[in-house]
# Entry
Amino acid sequence: MNKQRIWTIVGAVATIATIGAAAQWGYGWYQGRFAPSVLDTSAKSTGPTFSTSPLPATTTTALVYFAGGCFWCVESDFEKLPGVVEVVSGYTGGTTGIDGPTYSEVSRGATGHRESVKVEYDPQRLTYAQLVFWLLRHSDPTDATGSFYDRGHQYTSAVYYQTDVEKQAAEEVIAKVAQLKIFSKPVVTAIEPVSEFWIAEDYHQDFYKKNTTRYEHYRQASGRDAFYASIWGSGKYDHLFDAVATSPANGWTSFTKPDDTDLRARLTPLQYEVTQQAGTEKPFQNEYDSNKRDGIYVDIVSGEPLYSSLDKYESGTGWPSFSKPISPEAVTLHEVNGWFTRRTEVRSRYADSHLGHVFEDGPAPTGLRYCMNSAALRFVPKEDLAKEGLGEYLKLF
# Structure
């Protein structure tokens, strides 16, 4: 075979490969625009759930939902935040009854949905308030008619809350940012209850990783990074991320734990043994196992809110059991290894009291059982919440 023949064959193969790649790209582009989205059937979670992501066995995660303009960019910005496990692009907030909205429909404003993201995060490392602040920092929360390059309601920013506690935290963070006059215009980010979340076609997931050149060109041209640099580039407001770490709904950051002498004086011997020495009270012979009144359970030492009666259930174990804490950041989890066992200890965030343990045999949707010691808790009935300065929790009931 002569050289001319060889080069002819090589050229033909290269042409076929180019056509194949173009066809594959074209098919992906078409699917990305016109393929229907898929309803997310995973349980929404405002409390920790054992993660299906590649994390240590004791790591639990929670879910939040945001909109901040182009979901390619919002997904990228949240996945850069340490403590975020996974971000999924999709659509939410649209007209009820529209199934499987497509990118083409949403992007032209035909369905009322916003381009949105579902963020799975580790509440041991991040608080809900910090995530809201991160959204405000990486979007234009002052634009009521779109975001940067993209115009229309479908590209406006929004916080989608799942509980009144989340709603209050979002309102407080936005109020704090507005008070500091960080932006020259009012913050108009919507705060709305979360509705159905539709997962966008795979073409849009991790777009910033799979289509780097196109993504970077789009992002630069959109003006998003230039806007960010003009507001946040000086670093003047970097401290706010830590400042908003605690939602005002559980503002115990200034709590100072009493010394051991004081603790022994104010606690009963059993309360001290449980909270300070990781003891366990007797089952069926404790104060709250069979308590069925409406209210919340707070830490016996600090008074910080821990659990709601709405999440309490009869586990048959003899200890008060809950499917989730009152907020993802209310408690901290710690792996405890014994001679033949490994358990996950639950402690209060600010008093650092031992509360009990969490097990993976609870009811849906979390599948978790927070098995608590009554001696570590104090129950505040619904009718006393306002009197004890916990009036914000009345909305739960």
Observations:
- The radius of gyration is 25 Å.
- Residues 278 and 354 are 5 Å apart (CA to CA).
- Confidence is low (pLDDT under 50) at residues 20-25, 27-32, 45-59.
- The chain is about 30% helix and 20% strand.
